Amino acid sequence: MSDITVVHVMRHGEVANPDGLLYGRLPGYHLSELGQRMAERVAEHLAPRDITHVVSSPLERARETATPVAETHGVDLATDARLIEAENVFQGKTFGVGDGALRNPENWKHLVNPFKPSWGEPYLEQVVRMMGALDAAKDAARGHEAVCVSHQLPIWIVRSFVERRRLWHDPRKRQCTLASLTTFTYRGDEIVSVGYTEPARDLVPAHLLAGARAVKGKSKAFGA
């Protein structure tokens, strides 16, 4: 058996969110038609790979994104609660410049410490659970490849930890576009490289691409 194992961590596809809420861990948010196309595109991209294990966050948008990959490789789809979206006190609200959530003084107390962050699940807690989920996927696919479907912030945080960057950051600069793959290559139990690809890049609206400038009237991340 090879001592090389590859774990692809995929962000889910676009979500149907007509009210523009930060949906976080709320149930009932599913992929849009475009999001389904993104999931299928990535499944096609990964079809030649030696994938023996597919696991997702328990949230609907993640499971729907993972399903085409699992079906393509003829494996059962597993779930791991450690891959879930980060907690956020603004869940269920609109969130952006000029909207009610930030204009309400009652919410300002949640913004006092961006280094933790004070508005949600601490970054270090996200690292611990995500590293646990990646290690479990690596063990399940040892010598082969695995796919884990998760959410933007936890993916970016675990990548930042592995690449030894500070965990607090400007959310606008996360390199974790919809349906992207952040790939961790293990030799034995040690991560030896990290890669990043966007197989569905041509399907992603320009204002949602990694590093894109914000566009008036459009938000980059209502849930992630």
Q: H/E element string?
A: EHEHEHHEHEE
The CA-CA distance between the termini, in Å, is 36 Å
Question: Nearest-angstrom radius of gyration?
Answer: 17 Å
Strand order across the largest sheet? 3-2-4-1-5-6
- State the helix count: 5
- Helix/strand structural class: alpha/beta
Number of strands: 6
The CATH top-level class label = Alpha Beta
Average pLDDT, all residues: 89
How would you describe the shape?
globular
* Percent range of helical residues: 25-40%
Question: What's the number of structural domains?
Answer: 1
Which strand-content bin applies to the residues?
Answer: 15-25%
CATH architecture name: 3-Layer(aba) Sandwich
Low-confidence stretches: 214-222
The CATH topology is: Rossmann fold
The biggest sheet, with number of strands, parallel, antiparallel or mixed sense and barrel status, is: 6 strands, mixed
Please name the fourth-level CATH homologous superfamily: Phosphoglycerate mutase-like
Instruction: Kindly report the oligomeric state of this protein.
Output: single chain
GO molecular function: phosphatase activity
Protein name: Phosphoglycerate mutase
InterPro entries: His_Pase_superF_clade-1 (IPR013078), His_PPase_superfam (IPR029033), PGM_Phosphatase (IPR050275)
